[in-house]
Amino acid sequence: MKTGSVSPEESALLALQRATHATLHRLATELVDLDLTSSEINALANLADGRGRTVSDLGAAIGTKPTTLTGVLDRLERRGHITRGTLAGDRRSVLIGLTPSGRTAADAIRQTIDTFERRVLASLGPEKVAAFHEVLRALTEESR
Amino acid sequence: MKTGSVSPEESALLALQRATHATLHRLATELVDLDLTSSEINALANLADGRGRTVSDLGAAIGTKPTTLTGVLDRLERRGHITRGTLAGDRRSVLIGLTPSGRTAADAIRQTIDTFERRVLASLGPEKVAAFHEVLRALTEESR
DNA sequence: TCACGGAATCGGATAATACTGTTCCGTAGT
DNA sequence: ACTACGGAACAGTATTATCCGATTCCGTGA
Question: Where is the HTH marR-type domain (chains A, B) (predicted)?
Fold first, then answer.
């Protein structure tokens, strides 16, 4: 008998967007002390692992064009959170790195994210979380 | 050590945002004929079921403040896609409805979304999709 | 050397988002 | 009935996000 759907299940994409809005807003609220916008938080969170990244790579990770990042990175640089270096081997590329203050901010962001995620995801169990990631991956992949 | 995670599992929130960006962009690209922005598409998609909604309700569904919607709705109204009526029983509220052209656009949006979702989700199986929704719901709930 | 293409930025345009204040309306208290 | 309070939406304003086209600088191959 067709799918044994328990409920009519709202559109996955709409639910996805709502969840993103909600979590983003929540993050910005909890991290209000840092005085950063959502995009800046997002950029720093993606840089938190310490690996340098080019603007293009960062844009691909976040989902925006390099053009969009220029302004965000300008502000982060002006605040002393990031540095713009040259990539060894290709001087066309700009290597984004964290300054000490940027690292502090990024660590705070990651910790806030981790705490939030653990709190929410722990009660659901690893299988569901794994399925969640799998679906996200599929949606992202198929959007290219 | 620590969790026997198969892979380091990137942050769920970062993956969530990337997926949202990617799918939104994909939608806007596929629906370029409609000449609508992401927010407009989002609003129409949420109205597609034909139930009228107040601005506040719509904002809650999308994840933005009513203030933000005013401009979006202005444009949709100017294009003849929506109407602003009064809510029976409370004349403070504005009831957003679809015009025929708005319904056409909304239907096209829903169909594009449905097709995309089916294509991506069908291969994953209903359990994973259900888990996906459950995690989304938990993340959204906990963000209040 | 020179033409081509990639990476990032700049200039300029539009949209998204939200804060504050205002208007209109509903409700409760007197 | 009158008034006070609060909710809903909008107007005004400011900041940010996003991107397109053009430009600059650089790497690569002919």
Answer: 9-141
